[in-house]
Amino acid sequence: MPLSTDQQAEIDQARGEALTTRRAVAPALEEILYKAIPLLDHGFVRVIDYMGDDAAVVQAARVSYGRGTKKVSEDKGLINYLMRHRHTTPFEMCEIKYHVKLPIFVARQWIRHRTANVNEYSARYSILDNEFYMPKPEQLASQSANNRQGRDAVLTGKEAERVFDILKKDSELVYEHYMEMLNEGEAGTPLDPERSGLARELARMNLSLSFYTQWYWKTNLHNLMHFLSLRADAHAQYEIRVYADVMIDTMKRWTPICHDAFLEYRMGGAHLSKTGLAAIKRMIGGEKVDQKSSGLNPREWRELMNSLGIE
Amino acid sequence: MPLSTDQQAEIDQARGEALTTRRAVAPALEEILYKAIPLLDHGFVRVIDYMGDDAAVVQAARVSYGRGTKKVSEDKGLINYLMRHRHTTPFEMCEIKYHVKLPIFVARQWIRHRTANVNEYSARYSILDNEFYMPKPEQLASQSANNRQGRDAVLTGKEAERVFDILKKDSELVYEHYMEMLNEGEAGTPLDPERSGLARELARMNLSLSFYTQWYWKTNLHNLMHFLSLRADAHAQYEIRVYADVMIDTMKRWTPICHDAFLEYRMGGAHLSKTGLAAIKRMIGGEKVDQKSSGLNPREWRELMNSLGIE
Amino acid sequence: MPLSTDQQAEIDQARGEALTTRRAVAPALEEILYKAIPLLDHGFVRVIDYMGDDAAVVQAARVSYGRGTKKVSEDKGLINYLMRHRHTTPFEMCEIKYHVKLPIFVARQWIRHRTANVNEYSARYSILDNEFYMPKPEQLASQSANNRQGRDAVLTGKEAERVFDILKKDSELVYEHYMEMLNEGEAGTPLDPERSGLARELARMNLSLSFYTQWYWKTNLHNLMHFLSLRADAHAQYEIRVYADVMIDTMKRWTPICHDAFLEYRMGGAHLSKTGLAAIKRMIGGEKVDQKSSGLNPREWRELMNSLGIE
Amino acid sequence: MPLSTDQQAEIDQARGEALTTRRAVAPALEEILYKAIPLLDHGFVRVIDYMGDDAAVVQAARVSYGRGTKKVSEDKGLINYLMRHRHTTPFEMCEIKYHVKLPIFVARQWIRHRTANVNEYSARYSILDNEFYMPKPEQLASQSANNRQGRDAVLTGKEAERVFDILKKDSELVYEHYMEMLNEGEAGTPLDPERSGLARELARMNLSLSFYTQWYWKTNLHNLMHFLSLRADAHAQYEIRVYADVMIDTMKRWTPICHDAFLEYRMGGAHLSKTGLAAIKRMIGGEKVDQKSSGLNPREWRELMNSLGIE
User: Fold this and answer.
1) Which of B200, B246, B284, C107 is most buried as measured by Cβ atoms within 10 A of its Cβ?
2) Which of C139, C116, C144, C88 has the alpha carbon at shortest distance from C241?
3) Contact between chains at A274 and D265 (C-beta distance less than 8 A)
4) C216 with D60: CB under 8 angstroms?
């Protein structure tokens, strides 16, 4: 349950207001504006503002005086060209702002993308809610033996139970102690009127990385695509990937032509090395090439076959 | 005359369209949206898109679910506080996009502000118009004797005439030769059908820095204020200052509370040194302090007196 | 004890090597290069590389071919001028790289400074050490009643004991459970050879924000000063301030002239508002001004008096 | 002749000094440190400082205490892995600083790379030298008929002469008038002691974009590679490509392992689209695929064949 009744009421009120503007409007994105799209057990993503649309990319590329767009097919052709040839600046002319609720360990990965604007809920100033992330059973993966960053088979039975038990009990415990140190009781009354509470900026350090935080996160379309290409990738941690996946959907509502170009040229494409290209050329020429003769090391060969969808 | 009939028609058409949005709207800015505000002899500034308003700053500071604003007085108090204490991130949540036409030598100063998105009209790809900057007589200043970056008294009489004459004739000449090298005649026909034109990317280098270029320039409110504080400053070159001044007006229409805070705490304020503060303390205590006894060097002393408006 | 024997040996070895270079060298910084300066209970700061010195700032300002420096007094005058007039780009020409060990809640504040390069120890890839921050008794402050971000009087007696007890026991507990979920025993052997361990990227979320992480952090002198001016400020949280204080010392060894200018014009200076300057002018003129007649609100008046060191 | 005797003497003096450092040293780069590598007719590139080497990339990836490197083969394997998988942050840990002399129209392209530090010679403050770029005959290309950004066959005979003549005479003329407006004669004496000179910040606008400027330009290895991959590309304008080519050589001296990985995975590689990959898979499977049946448009097909080196 990511939202309280009050929060939902605030969102409904914001959604109720409609004003007139001369700016570009993305109707499909307006439909879901301010709405919280639930994620994981307590998280959400909300689009709370945006600037520009597909046409804004075209206008910027042409430095035009008016709408700058011609036929849809021409706009699409230009956007595809820009995407293919890494002319990134026109995509920077669109901007989007999200309100995101996410576990702290996810926030720590996310924040590494520096070219964005962020306002995070301050645990120095305010008290965090009692909400922490508990993985679903199908996400309770064991450590990969091959890949030190990866997950392997899912834990089951007693092992799974024990992990759930630890995660849940420890989170509850540290939160209870957090409130005790703060001397915070129900509805803002002190637990014990006789004593002072520990400073918030200190007490927070007892909370674990599974607790939820939230922030406003604003970026331009170019940087958004860079973020998505890394975080919707199969190598990204599941818990951040679900955010990226939902954000790709919001991008589709916002700039559908850019979205399609992004899937075609970035997400669905692959970067091949000089040696990889040479191996392909020989294969197309009818030569029988294997890892050894390709000049690639075993891992690179596997990655190349993977890119081509060849087993 | 900064705009052609076609350009004006495109702008009028864009202004004519009104759509409904759930986003925040800044009515006073909508009034002038897309309009070209003329500057210098051929330049302009046009606001062509924006995101957020004063309330968006408040929302971001509170990471709120709804509008996040309370009473206007509270919002104003919060914005003043943020401005005073350099809490800059909430101001990054508003974004604005300009279309600017400006002489190349001004563009070269402007571009040094890196935290912005830019799409410039490409002289590699297109042909620049025959428009160059000619200073007004009252701007034809002589080189300052004291300040190597500054201007002194205005040139007059024969000296002024000679400068005007040079600037005008040389600009006309290099443009004529630019078109000749391009082999470009009226309305896109070649001057001489028998010969090829020089590549645009080469021919452009014959143009002088007084020629106008144009770009889309997008930045957030925090970076805009940083730009304005440097470029609307008395030490900035006149030709960029006139742009900054007009942009401060657009900021007033967009985020009036931030605008007032900006004037009060940044443009109208001053940063004093440790020694400067100590000198002031003594003066307030009734002590007679002059440059020598202040511990400041003559230039610093002058700057301090200047900040305080004391002669 | 921030360093293991192995780590200390690695540092000693690095310090033992001396090579010849044509680059600028900062002798006082070389003295402490690679050394770990201990901080808090388990943290440290180590300077591990640098580029440039005071002269590099001068060279950049002059775009010179050689050393670019003249007399020390002239260099100092130029650096002071640059600092005073916010000519920030020459300071960007010096670069420094730190290795820092710090509690996660401090890292979360620190990372908000975006214009730096960071490589953090990955808890997705590796296992974190059993080291968590325990405040010293004199840092165990209560929540400020006036300032929601601040600290008040120090907790004592039973209250203090209880807080220590909670912080210590909870940290020990979550770490024990972290290792249990990972199925990690002594020296890399599994606790229980029969079961798989939970993926590292998941297990880490049971750790609390008091645990130490570490990173390489590299930035230029301009951005370093910006960081220091905010984080060595009295309003910064104590636990990050101690890092900033130590880094100011390293800056003194690196670029002593810039360091002095930084203290004089930034750390020791103050930014006054338009209304504040006007009030000061009246006071210097002999007028009796109090908060009401100053036009400042009570908080601003307090801040102004504070800046001037007047009670 | 890019350097005066005085400048060369300053460089020689800087090169003559050798100091001892504990920092990483790149011997092959030290060999050419400060030396001006000539480019075009009056330009140059000089490496004037650097931080880190190949090992610094490895250290950062491992967040190590000491040198962090193991066997050369392991370091190479790790660097290749990082390059292939877009783990860009370790490359940001190396920094390099250049002094570059370049025509203004090249500087205008270059400056669009924002993530760098720049100090440019100020024509507001100083007087520019009488040096302008004249293309060599083999660079005097005509405008491409197919590609609006490109060059076609080289101009010859009378056409070439006419272009040379224009470029040379116009440059000489605008410089002569620049000095006349400044009232600057030989060796800093006024041309006419009776009159004032025009302010430098105004007079400069009479100069054309072919004139040389110079700057200090500093960036990290990641951003350098991004710059080089775009500017050493066949689509980049010749006049900036020669700079990128020389800088790739300096990179080889600085970080030879990164250099090789850069050529293998970036410069020599290619990014293929989803449809492109599917077409290749079919071709490898023995299917006869042409542009029509590939699903690619003619231009994309041509680009794909080009990437594979197939005619």
Assistant:
1) B200
2) C139
3) yes
4) yes
The catalytic residues of A are 231
Q: How far is it, in rounded angstroms, from Cα A85 to Cα D299?
A: 12
The confidence band for C153, taking pLDDT boundaries of 50, 70 and 90, is: confident
Q: Would you say A221 and A95 are in contact if contact means Cβ atoms under 8 Å apart?
A: yes
Q: CB D10 to CB C64 under 8 A?
A: yes
Q: How far apart are the first and last CA of chain C?
A: 42
All residues at 6 or more sequence positions from B234 whose CB lies less than 8 Å from its CB, including other chains: none
pLDDT at C304 exceeding the cut of 70: yes
State how far the Cα of D217 lies from the Cα of C93, in Å rounded to an integer.
8
Neighbours of chain B (3+ CB pairs under 8 A): A, C, D
C151 part of a folded domain: no
Chain C residues touching residue B263 (CB < 8 angstroms): 274
Q: D15, D231, D241, D282: which is the annotated catalytic residue?
A: D231
> Which phi and psi (to 5°) does residue C297 adopt?
-80, 165
β-sheet bridge partners, residue A143: A151
The answer on pLDDT for A7 being more than 70 is: yes
Residue D3, domain CATH: 3.30.1360.170
How far apart are alpha carbons A170 and C170 in whole angstroms?
A: 8
Residue D130 neighbours by CB under 8 Å, 6+ apart: D175
Do C286 and C257 share a structural domain?
Answer: no
Q: How many domains in chain D? A: 2
**Mean pLDDT, all residues of chain C:** 94
Q: Best residue in D21, D44, D87 to probe C by mutation, most C CBs within 10 Å?
A: D21
Place of tokens 């770490």: C175
Q: Is residue A85 located within the same domain as residue A39?
A: yes
Residue with tokens 């004890």: C1
| D47/chain C closest Cα distance in angstroms | 10
Check pLDDT > 70 for residue D255: yes
Pair D129, D278 in one domain: no
ipTM over 0.85? The verdict is yes
Please list every residue in chain D whose beta carbon sits closer than 8 Å to the beta carbon of residue C7.
65-66
The structure tokens listed for D253 are: 């001296």
- Look over chain A and give the mean of its residue pLDDT values, rounded to a whole number: 94
* Residues D176, D183 contacting (CB under 8 angstroms): no
With respect to residue C59, please indicate whether it lies within any of the assigned structural domains: yes
Rounded to the nearest angstrom, the minimum Cα separation between B62 and chain D is 31
All residues of chain D having their beta carbon less than 8 Å from the beta carbon of residue C66 are 7, 9-11, 13-14
Q: Which of B48, B57, B135 lies closest to B96 in space, CA to CA?
A: B48
The answer to whether D235 contacts A263, with C-beta atoms less than 8 Å apart, is no
Interface of C with D in 99-118 (CB under 8 A): 99, 117-118
Angstrom CA distances, A216 to A46, B171, C123, D91, stand at 9, 50, 25, 29
Cβ B216–A30 below 8 Å, yes or no?
no
Residue-wise pLDDT for A168-196, tens only, equals 999 999 999 999 999 998 777 899 988 88
Look at the pTM and tell me if it is higher than 0.90. Answer: yes
DSSP single-letter state for residue C250: H
Q: How many other C-beta atoms can be found within 10 angstroms of the C-beta atom of residue A238?
A: 17
Q: For residue A8, is it within any domain?
A: yes
Structural domain boundaries, residue D291: 274-308
Alpha-carbon gap, residue C215 to B92, rounded angstroms: 27
CA torsion angle for C255, C261, C266, C267 (degrees, to 10)? 70
DSSP B268: S
Same domain, B150 and B200: yes
Do C149 and A108 lie within an 8 Å CB cutoff?
no
In this structure, the answer to whether residues C226 and C278 fall within a common structural domain is no
Per-residue pLDDT for B1 more than 70?
no
| Catalytic-residue membership of C241 | no
Q: Could you report the per-residue pLDDT of C41-53, keeping only the tens digit for each?
A: 999 999 999 999 9
* Residue A297 placed within a domain: yes
